[in-house]
Design goal:
With 69 residues, the chain is an all-beta fold. It contains no helices and six strands. Strands 1, 2, 3, 4, 5 and 6 form a six-stranded antiparallel beta sheet that branches.
């Protein structure tokens, strides 16, 4: 599998968001459309990169984020 990705614009970039799945909040740093397949068959998914209070980033599906306002 080759590394394949592209940045996607999102209305919540650089804003505080909440990951619905875990309840963790942080700043949305990027949304990237990534090939997440471990095989030759491509499987693309939009991932949200969120920087938490600790400064570490984690990912979740874009459909799992909401504004934390």
């Amino acid at each position: 599998m080759s590394e394949q990705r592209e940045y996607v614009p999102h209305r919540l970039l650089r804003r505080r968001v909440r990951d619905i799945a875990s309840g963790v909040e942080g700043e949305l740093m990027a949304v990237i459309n990534e090939n997440v397949s471990a095989t030759d068959t491509e499987h693309w998914m939009e991932l949200a990169y969120i920087r938490g209070a600790s400064g570490r980033e984690f990912t979740t599906a874009v459909s799992n984020i909401e504004a934390a306002d």
